[in-house]
Design a protein that fits this description.
- The structure is a single chain.
- The chain is an alpha+beta fold.
- The chain is built from 8 helices and 18 strands.
- The longest helix has 11 residues.
- The N terminus is likely disordered.
Length: 425
């Protein structure tokens, strides 16, 4: 279904380089073993990944890094699909989403759900629709695209795009034109989603959807028999996105925005963000960013020279003093911090007395076990908190090292069969 199968070297299983760029001018590199991707197990802890139907594979909580999942400054994807990123790079290459999986059905708020672009009553089954008619993949797995805009958009207005310059793949289709794609193996891939509004914004997007100001993307590395990928809010929110991965052994997991968020109008989601975050963060969902984006703090006034450049200063001093940290203190917006644990502690406002002087977690410490303890008081990254509060099982990528403790929206499993991608408004 669109695009010839590409041949790639077998994915590495250990020591794969994960490139994690810290906002705009600071590229950070860490190593994340992919040995877990081969077993389908997870070293992480934390809450569970939503299950939707089917049986659950024991111990299949996702795997480690995505074998080099895309993360670029300036928002340019390794696959050749280029978009401005709103000031920070994408996540890429995260660790797993956690350990045990639920088997008692999917998370649901019980309210209105969208199916095929119109509202529908029910829970997860209604949201995802009939999966029995998804064709089997000839390549690695079948992607199916779902309009979950509650009737705000037609299938002809939502486009998906997948490009890979090394293999010559260049796919751009509306959901109306083609709602499935037989995905080949690929590394550091991004799939973009665009909405062409009526009237189009900008005007040229009517004939060139990739120029639309309303867009978002997902990231993945797909081996011959393994899916590794995530949704991301590290750069910004552009469109509501949720993924459901189903594998041959019955593994069935959901990541992305929760069903209640999909049920909202776009205006309501922006308004909810402004209402729930402290006043310092409200501008991230207001013009000039709105109505197109809700941007990460480093793209707003938390940047160097911005109004809230020193927002974290007092907390940084406290965190460093309580742990006798020897790592250099960061500048604006807890950035740069090259130690993942220390970076996560800075944004989540946790970790007093819990860290070693080099910024690593002390042995036996359970700092990351309970996500409800994160963001207890200001200063903290309330942008990230919002996306966790409104994500499937509280798992989201709100900052580059949000995978620490397995709280990111990353999933990995062997023998994938299909991936449902819900696009909302």
């Amino acid at each position: 279904m669109g695009g010839a199968q590409a041949t790639f070297p077998a994915p590495v299983t250990r020591g794969t380089l994960r490139a994690m760029s810290h906002w705009k001018d600071h590229a950070l590199f860490t190593l994340a073993g992919l040995v877990f991707a081969c077993s389908g197990t997870s070293p992480g802890q934390g809450s569970t990944t939503t299950q939707v139907g089917g049986s659950t594979a024991s111990g299949s909580g996702g795997a480690a890094a995505t074998a080099g999942t895309s993360n670029r400054t300036g928002g340019t994807a390794a696959t050749g699909d280029s978009r401005p990123s709103g000031g920070s790079p994408a996540t890429g290459g995260a660790k797993s989403t956690g350990g045990n999986q639920t088997t008692g059905g999917a998370k649901s708020t019980g309210g209105s759900r969208a199916t095929g672009g119109s509202g529908a009553t029910g829970g997860a089954d209604s949201f995802w629709g009939d999966t029995t008619n998804i064709p089997a993949a000839n390549n690695v797995l079948m992607f199916k695209f779902l309009n979950r805009s509650n009737g705000a958009l037609t299938d002809s207005q939502i486009y998906w795009s997948f490009q890979n310059t090394s293999t010559g793949i260049n796919e751009l289709h509306s959901i109306l034109e083609q709602d499935t794609y037989d995905m080949p193996a690929n590394s550091s891939g991004r799939m973009y989603f665009y909405v062409v509004t009526n009237p189009p914004d900008p005007a040229g997007s009517a004939t060139s959807p990739r120029t639309s100001k309303y867009y978002d993307f997902i990231e993945f590395t797909i081996g011959a028999d393994t899916y590794n990928g995530n949704t991301t809010r590290v750069d910004a929110f552009g469109l509501k996105i949720a993924n459901r991965l189903h594998c041959a052994d019955g593994f069935d997991a959901v990541i992305g925005e929760d069903y209640a968020t999909f049920a909202q109008s776009r205006d309501a989601t922006f308004a909810q963000f402004i209402a729930e975050v402290p006043v310092e963060f409200a501008h991230l969902a207001q013009p000039p960013f709105a109505p197109y984006r809700i941007v990460q703090p480093g793209a707003g006034q938390f940047k160097t020279g911005g109004t809230y450049e020193h927002y974290y200063d007092s907390w940084v001093d406290q965190l460093w003093a309580s742990n006798n940290i020897t790592v250099a203190k960061p500048g604006a917006n807890c950035n740069p911090i090259q130690q993942p644990t220390l970076s996560a502690a800075c944004y989540r406002h946790v970790g007093l007395g819990a860290l070693n002087p080099d910024g690593t977690l002390k042995n036996g410490n359970t700092l990351w076990q309970d996500g409800t303890t994160f963001y207890p008081v200001a200063p903290a990254d309330y942008y990230a908190k919002f996306w966790h509060d409104h994500a499937q099982n509280g798992k989201a990528y709100g900052f580059p090292y949000d995978d620490v403790g397995s709280w990111s929206s990353y999933i990995s499993h062997k023998n994938p069969q299909y991936m449902l991608v819900a696009i909302g408004w």
